[in-house]
Every structure is written in C-alpha cells, then in structure tokens.
Design a protein that fits this description.
The protein has 9 helices and 5 strands; from the N terminus they run ααβαβαβαααααββ. It has 211 residues and is of the alpha/beta class. Strands 2-1-3-4-5 form a 5-stranded mixed beta sheet. The longest helix has 21 residues. The termini are far apart. This is carbonic anhydrase. Its cofactor is Zn(2+). Keywords: Lyase, Metal-binding, Zinc.
Length: 211
C-alpha cells in the first residue's frame, strides 16, 4: 500500500517534468485562469476519464462526475457546478456521457440492496418505470442493459434542459447546447445519441419556465 502511494507521487513528478519539457510555460499559463468550452457530466467510474476520451488538455473541460452520470434537481453539488459552468465560465456545450457496463444502471435494474447508493439509484429506477414496456420487450439481457444505459443518458440531458440555470441562459441569448453520449469501455469510441437540445422550445410546455 505504501509503495502504491509513493508511486503516485513519483508519477506526478515525472508528469511535471514531461509537461515542462514540452512547454516551459505550461503550468504558468494554466494558473492564469480557465475558459473551457465544455462541461462534462459523466460517471464516477474510473474507466471513463473525460479529458482522455475527447483528447482534451487541462483547462479545456470542466467536469462533474457522479454514480451513473445523473442530473438530479435536488443535488446542490451538480447544480453548483452547472451554474458556475454556464453563468461564469460561459461554456458552449454540456455533454452527459454514460457508458456501457455502468454498475449504477445495472443495480437499478435489480432488487439487491447495495447500501446508501440505493437512495441515489432510485432516480434511475424511476426512469425504468417510465420506459418499462420498451425495455421489457427486449429479451436479451445485455441488449436491454445497453438500451437502458442509453435511455438514462438521454433522460439526464432533458433533466439539464429543465433546470432554471440552463433555461435562464437560453432566455438571455446565450449559446448553449446539451448533448447525450455513451462511451464504449471495450472500444474506446463514444456514440452520439442524437439528443441535442439548444432551447426550451424542445421541452414539453409544462417544463418551460417563465423567467
């Protein structure tokens, strides 16, 4: 355990040396501030690193991660990140990226208790209830699992669009596009789910806030 910890520190030193060898001003420039064009909302899964997946450098992606890439309207952590990204950093794009093989989504499909996370994945179970006829019509378990991962990512994009933060930005004429992706752990490729929202006109009228 101690050796692993020591190796982390050594890895950091090597990374700094390599970065400075490429650009002596690398960290000095980063310290001046950030203007990322993208907010990434992804899963906490260690196999889904936001920057690496899209080939982005430090300073190019503002990141929020949680179990199963959820956008829960009572989650002050997520809302704080979203508000800062939209209203201060003025990001142009928000990507919700799920991934095939997501343990949170898988747990939501079953009945086994896995601890306090039961309360978190209940939100995912609500989504299954809304799409149960379609999902239950898929006989192959893996295909049904993959389909639910995609549905979950799409639903989170719509949850983003329903927030007063995003709708306020649109009302103020801010360029802001929301997207849904799914990442393939076994391929490295992302799948664009073709759910891109850029105004609240694309929402049901009950969700369109009069701001």
């Amino acid at each position: 355990m101690k050796e692993f910890y020591k190796q982390l520190l050594e890895n950091n030193k090597k990374w700094v040396e390599t970065s400075l060898a490429k650009d002596p001003n690398y960290f000095a420039d980063l310290a001046k501030g950030q203007q990322p064009p993208l907010l990434w909302i992804g899963c906490s899964d260690s196999r889904v690193p936001a920057n690496e997946i899209v080939g982005a450098k430090p300073g190019e992606v503002f990141v929020h991660r949680n179990i199963a890439n959820m956008v829960v309207h009572s989650d002050m952590n997520m809302l704080s990140v979203l508000d800062y990204a939209v209203n201060v950093l003025k990001v142009k794009h928000v990507i919700v990226c799920g991934h095939y093989g997501c343990g949170g989504v898988k747990a939501a499909m079953g009945n086994m208790s896995v601890g306090i996370i039961d309360n978190w994945i209940r939100h995912i179970k609500d989504e299954y209830r809304l799409h149960d006829k379609y999902l239950n019509s898929i006989e192959d378990e893996t295909e049904r699992f993959n389909a639910f991962v995609e549905i979950n990512a799409k639903e989170q994009v719509y949850n983003l669009a329903k927030t007063s933060i995003v709708q306020g930005a649109w009302k103020n004429g801010q360029d802001l596009m929301l997207h849904g992706w799914v990442y393939g752990l076994n391929s490295g490729f992302v799948t664009d789910l073709n759910v891109t929202i850029s105004s609240n006109d694309e929402l049901d009228s009950v969700y369109q806030l009069d701001l």
